[in-house]
Amino acid sequence: MEEGDLWPARNVAEYAYCPRLFYLMQVEGVFLPSADTEQGAAVHRRTDLPSEGRPEEATDPNRPVALRSLTLTSEGLGLTATLDLAEVSGATAVPVEYRKGRPCWPHPSDGPDNASPPDDESTLTTPQPWPTDRVQVGLQALLLREAGYTVDRAVLYYGAEKLRLEIPVDDVLLGEALATLDAAKTCAQGPRPLPLVNDPKCVGCSLQPFCLPDEINYQREMIAGQPVRRSLWPPRDEGLHLVAQRQASRVGVRGHMLLVTDRDGEVLDEIPIANVDSLAILGYVQLTTQALHTLAEHGIPVAFLSSAGRLVTFVDPLDSVSANVRRAQVRRLDDPTTCLELARALVAAKIANQRTLLMRNHPALPDVVLADLAREAKRASEAESLDTIRGHEGAAAALYFQHFPDMFPEPVASQFREHGRQRRPPPDPVNACLSMSYSMLTHECVSALRLASLEPSIGAFHSSRPGRPALALDLMEPFRPLIGDSLTLIAFNRGELAEGHFHQTAAGCLLTPPGRRAFFSVYGRRMDTEITHPLFKYRLSYRRMIMLHARMISAWLLGEIPELAFLTTR
Description:
- The protein is of the alpha/beta class.
- It folds into 2 domains: 7-117 and 124-193, Lambda Exonuclease, Chain A, CATH 3.90.320.10; 322-557, Up-down Bundle (Four Helix Bundle (Hemerythrin (Met), subunit A)), CATH 1.20.120.920.
- The protein has 18 helices and 18 strands.
- The strands form 5 sheets. Strands 1, 2, 3, 4, 5 and 6 form a 6-stranded mixed beta sheet that branches.
- Helix 4 (131-146) links the parallel strand 4 and strand 5.
- Helix 1 runs antiparallel to helix 2, helix 1 (9-17) crosses helix 5 (171-188) and helix 16 crosses helix 17 (513-528).
């Protein structure tokens, strides 16, 4: 941080828990809500209301004053803090910090949210504060002392046990707080710290899905022959990914709800903003300025697509920006060798998934086709230039789409066979469905890269040019057959999309309003389908699998993992 910047005591205290957690929060600005963070916010809701009085008004030692949300800063320490509560009696102050969890009983390494007192009361020991909590109240005591108060003790209130734990403010505590502050400042000047190894603290950490401790350590330890086998990522629930596609409707906001109304003002739907992860606006749907501001405040990205599904623009809240990650992305992807390595992995995985889709669904696929696709995948993985990789990808695509229509019912099979794969404009129903699915997949990949703090416009395999999310197009390559092509097969073979769901216009073959509703029904189910990761062996939905791969790309660009492996199915 620059000279004159102030460090929040809350973030500095996290360094005592995990240096990587501190770095992600303080340097990269990463925050992921979880059940624990929401419960913690509920505990603080009352204490976060600022008191009417000011510290200097508490001059009567016989009448203690409770000051809530007291903000203190120190230019000398470069530190700032907002105290939950300060009990002030004349020139003496006691900082009080609220915690939703329990104090440390037997094992500090268990983490504050998992620890609990022993069942046998005869074995109870004196409860102790967690190191993070000690550091935080120590930093608060330093700020209060610098403000002119005498601070002899601090209080930690643990809500889970309704326990008020007093801590003496002595040289040991203050030294611990200052040492943590100095270590945190040093940490922030360097690269992102590596994750903890097989540490129980990772289990309850809200940033664990971003940090990926076991996934990163697994790949690093594979080199040493001792891979970590614990899998943490799946338990986090995901929010709603909304698509507003009813033409002439309006998306506004009322309180903490998104409000969808028709052209006459009749309410069509109400959705809690807290449940939303992303919003896609398709065609002529109005989004109010108030709704856009509210979505940005909650870190929710908004994609604007044409009626045909082409991604027009993307509103990206600034909370996703990490200068360190994007600096590493620019530097690494400016190296042709790095771009070549990423492109090899992407295209080889894409061709392998195309081969699997044909093998699973084609009624009479010649063995030579499977052999040719396997050969193109291997050659792509060993190619010496991007142009060579593009040549193998093109050869595989031509072979793949030559046999692709054989998996569809008539008459859509004949129509696609006549035109082949065409995008602008799509001339037939299958092409229209593929184009819509690829557009939505692009939106999903842009959103995933945003959550991984990556810049979607700077890619490796796809060239960067204005208005093109090159890295999102890179990321989606292995997922095209698994999501876009698969859901198209499902929709037509199950009769969920039929001739009546499309109409021909000068702009090509387009989905009708009933066709769009049918498409998004299939699309939603496909994105929610769970599959097993071939390396980590846990199950994730396709949407979360895309998010995982975006974060693995980020870890690879930062040098945290040695190589990339993209999802392939069998």
